[in-house]
Amino acid sequence: MHIDARNIDNNSLIEGDICIVGSGAAGISMAIELLNTPYKVILLEGGGFEYDSQMQDLYKGKTTGQRYFPLESARLHYFGGTTGHWAGFCSTFDPIDFKERDWVPHSGWPIKREDLDPYYSRAQKNLDLGPYEYSAKYWQDKDPELKGLSLDENVVFNKMWQFSTPTRFGTKYRDAIVKAPNIHLYTYANVTDITANQNVSAIKEVTVKNFAGKQHTVRAKQFIIACCSIQNARLLLASNKQAPKGLGNQNDNVGRYFMEHLEIKSAEMWLTKPDVLKLYQWDWGVKHRAELAISEDIQRKHRILNGTASLMPLEVAKNQTPMIDLWSADTAKTNAFMKEGERRGKTQKELKSHKAFELFTRVEQAPNPNSRVTLDAQKDALGVQRANLHWELTPLEKHSLRKIYQIIGEQIGISAAGRVRLMEYLQDENDNTWPEFTGGGWHHMGTTRMADDPKKGVVDANCKVHGIANLYMAGASCYATAAAPNPTLTLVALTIRLADHIKQKVKTTV
C-alpha cells in the first residue's frame, strides 16, 4: 500500500507494529523480509519515487579534514536510495575483519564471519547475484580461461567479486511493496525527530514532515532506522530534546568512527610478456572477477589493514579522471558515475593482451573516533540541523597501502611474471600525506558501530541501540570495521539477520 504523506490530513496519527525509516538497500530489504507477515509495517521514505532536487538538498552538509565528495551527491534521497547509482560490486568480508586485531585500535565485532554466512546466502538473491561461491577455484573450474597470476596463495590470493546487474531496489521491489497488504509505504514522510518515553528507555513515536507543510506522528512497537551512516547518526544526534547529547549517545559514540574505503591508484605492474589476465578483468555485464588480496597470516605478520588491488590496462587507466575530481554536487542528478563507468567498461572491453597494468587499491580505514559526523549550526528546510563530516585518516592507512604493494611486488618478482613499481607518493616510508587524487568509494560505514560494551559502541550484536528497548539501526552504520569489500552485500546480509531477530521479538509485543 502506498500513501503520499503530502495528501493526508495534517497532524495525522499513523500506527503500526513495526516502523522502518528509510527505503534504501537496508530499509527495503527489511520490508521484503516482513512481506506477508501478520504485522503492520510502516515504511517511511522522505522523498518520492524519482529524483527531487529539493529533497536532495536535505542531505547537504559540510566536510572537513581529508578532502571528500559533496555530501548531497554521495547519497540519493528517494525510494530505492543509493542503489539508484551503485555499480553492483559485491564480495564477502573475511574472517579477520570481524576479529580484534591488536595493531588496529577499536577493531573487533561481537559477531563472527560464520554468523553471517546463512544471511550472505540469502542476500545473494536480493542483489541478483549468482551462487554463494566466492572461491577463485570455483569460477575457474567453470571457465578455464579465467587465468590469473601464479602467486603463493598463502601470501597473496585471488579474492573474488560478484557483480549485481546492478539491482535498482526502487525499481525491482516497488510493486511488491506497494501491493503488499501489510506494508504501508509513506512517501514524502521525512523523519525529523524521535520521541522516547519519560526515562528514554523506549521509543514512543517519530515525527515526519514534508514540503507541503504537513506534519504527522508515527507510532509503533519497534523502530528501525535505515537512513545510511551519515543520516542515521544525524537523526540520533538531532533527537536531543530528551537526551541532550542525542539518543543512544550517552557515551559520546554516535557519529564517531565514520569509515570509508580509500580508493586510489597506487602502482604499476609490468609483465615480462603481454597477457589478458582474464580473471581480473571487468566491464559492464561481467558477473565475476578477482582482485589481489593479502592473506590473514601476512596481514598479522606485517600489522596492516585489509585491502585489495584491482588491475586495469595502463593505457586505459592513464586517460581516466580521478573520481574525487569527477564527482560534484550535481552528480547525483546527472548520474555521471554510472555513465563514466559504462564508458570505462566499453573502452576496457575492446582491449586484449597487455604488458602494463595499473594497480588500484581499495583499503579499509582504521576505526578512528576522530573521524566523525556531528551537527552543524545551520538547519535544513525542514528544521533539522545539517550534518558535518570530519573525515580523518591515520598513519596506519598509509603504512598498510605501502606494505600491500611491497608484498604484491615481491610475489610478482618471485613468480617471474614481471615487476611492480610503486607510485611516488608511496615511496617515502616517513611520508604520511595523501595526494590530491585520493578518493573514497562512497562507502559510508560506522557512526552507530556495533559492540557488546555500551562504552565502545552504539548498538549491540542485534543492532539494537544500547539502553533503548525498541530502537534498531540498520545498514553499514553498524559496522565496527570497514573490511576491504564494498559494503552492500554485507549490509543486506546484516539487515536480513536483523529482520529475523525483529520477527522473533515482535511476537512477544504484538
TrEMBL record:
Coiled coil: none annotated. Its cofactor is FAD. Residues 367-494 form the Glucose-methanol-choline oxidoreductase C-terminal domain. The keyword Metal-binding does not apply. Keywords: FAD, Flavoprotein, Oxidoreductase. Residues 17-232 form the FAD dependent oxidoreductase domain. InterPro entries: FAD-dep_OxRdtase, FAD/NAD-bd_sf, GMC_OxRtase_C, P2Ox-like. Belongs to the GMC oxidoreductase family. This is GMC family oxidoreductase. It comes from Mucilaginibacter aquariorum.
